[in-house]
Specification:
The chain has helices spanning about 5-15, 25-40, 55-65, 75-85, 100-105, 110-115, 120-130, 170-180, 195, 205-240, 255, 270; strands at about 20-25, 45-50, 70-75, 90, 115-120, 140-145, 150, 155-160, 185-190, 245, 265, 290-300, 305, 325, 330-335, 345, 360-365, 375-380, 385-390. It is α/β, with parallel strands linked by helices and about 400 residues long.
């Protein structure tokens, strides 16, 4: 029996009392992935990216381990909810235009001390001030640096279109604008190198592309390390009390942690290890989060149909954004249909061994987005479900 076949047997036994669709997290794999992230971080604290987890119980499980510290959230509403739920260090990773929540933040000392907001433009400070509604609390601010690699005089750009702040001078100018403005304090700098942390460098069947990605990423790491250090020096000259410099992501933990200027690493997807993280040379994680769909039809030899399963991930549309049938091994989509909203035909010889009601296990393309489809996660230890915990959706929250 292969390791994957053994996992399938365990998951089927653990969930035999549960009807599919169902989602699980294998706690042994989750904890092993957490240990691997800590090993790669080399002693620097890891801030857990909540959008990649979207389950309070599992955020708490990660943060209970030495080496994990703080949460990186994705909306202001989520940030305030987490702070009210007892999370004491929440960094909002994206600028917000949520005036109502800014009014709450600036009026509540507990929230203002727990939550740090992201900015890259003076106009965002204007929006906060306009939303204060009498609130006088000092707002903790993090400045975001654009990490993109610019080549040929800027004519070619590699990296996500995030912050407009690219140079040390631009970031320092915004830090000075914050320092001059009552009611705000610069406490951090963030730089997310998505073109390194979020792009696989070992794509199966594409050796030339993989080599090109590795060359690009090596150049990007060198350029960013030098520029990030200069940015931090420039900001510290304006804000000597700077508390943290955040960088990285699951795919670049060890590289980012090696930079002296970086004080903490952001990571979250590496806890669940969705399918997009299969294509990296720098690490190998264990799939921890899976979902199962039930077999509801047997249309013919070598074919079964499961209920639903069409859960595409965000990003540029393509096959890499689709979930993949994982267990039993050897199943594939019908190219004429793919994964559907209400039914998904699956082809392959393993189909002939599946009966109506059996489970087919899938892996989602991205980590936390799976939780937008399920109210609960069943936590598996060995071949037993030891707990069932709500996702954000299960607690009545869909923040985006």
């Amino acid at each position: 029996m292969t390791a994957r076949a053994a996992d399938r047997a365990r998951y089927d036994r653990a969930t035999a009392h549960l009807d599919a669709p169902v989602a699980i997290v294998d706690l042994e794999a989750f904890d092993a992935n957490a240990d691997d992230l800590l090993r790669r971080a080399g002693g620097k604290p890891i801030r857990v990216a909540s959008k990649s987890v979207r389950c309070r119980a599992l955020l708490e499980r990660a943060l209970a381990r030495d080496g994990f510290a703080g949460v990186m959230s994705f909306t202001l509403a989520e940030s305030l909810w987490l702070a009210r739920s007892g999370f004491e260090d929440v960094l909002l990773a994206y600028p917000s235009a949520d005036r109502a929540r800014y009014a709450e933040l600036t009026a509540d000392p507990k929230l203002a001390s727990a939550v740090t907001v992201m900015i890259d433009d003076v106009a965002q400070l204007d929006l906060v001030d306009a939303a204060r509604d009498g609130g006088r609390e000092v707002v903790r601010v993090c400045l975001e640096l654009d990490t993109s690699l610019k080549l040929f005089g800027g004519r070619v750009r590699v990296g996500a279109r995030r912050s407009p702040l690219h140079s040390p001078a631009e970031v320092a100018d915004l830090a000075r604008a914050v320092a001059r403005r009552p009611g705000f304090e610069v406490v951090g700098v963030m730089a997310y190198e998505g073109h390194v942390a979020g792009v696989g460098d070992a794509v199966a069947g594409r050796p030339l592309r993989s080599r090109a990605v590795r060359l690009m990423q090596a150049a990007a790491r060198r350029e960013l390390a030098e520029r990030r250090a200069a940015v931090v020096r420039a900001v510290r000259a304006v804000a000597p009390g700077l508390e943290f410099v955040n960088g990285g992501g699951t795919g670049s933990v060890q590289h980012t942690a090696a930079e002296d200027a970086v004080t903490e690493i952001a990571a979250g997807s590496g806890l669940y290890v969705p399918r997009l993280f299969d294509n990296y040379t720098s690490f190998r994680g264990r799939p921890a989060a899976l979902f199962a769909q039930p077999v509801v039809r047997r249309p013919g030899v070598g074919v079964v149909t499961v209920l639903g399963g069409g859960y595409p991930a965000s990003g540029a549309a393509g096959k890499d954004r689709l979930p993949v049938p994982y267990l039993p091994e050897g199943l594939r989509y019908d190219p004429q249909e793919g994964p559907g909203e209400v039914q998904t035909p699956l082809l392959g010889t393993p189909a002939d061994d599946l009966l109506i009601g059996d489970k087919v296990w899938f892996r989602h393309a991205k980590a936390g987005e799976l939780c937008e489809r399920f109210d609960t996660l069943h936590l598996v230890e060995g071949d037993t479900v030891t707990a069932t915990v709500p996702t954000y959706r299960g607690e009545g929250h869909t923040f985006l």
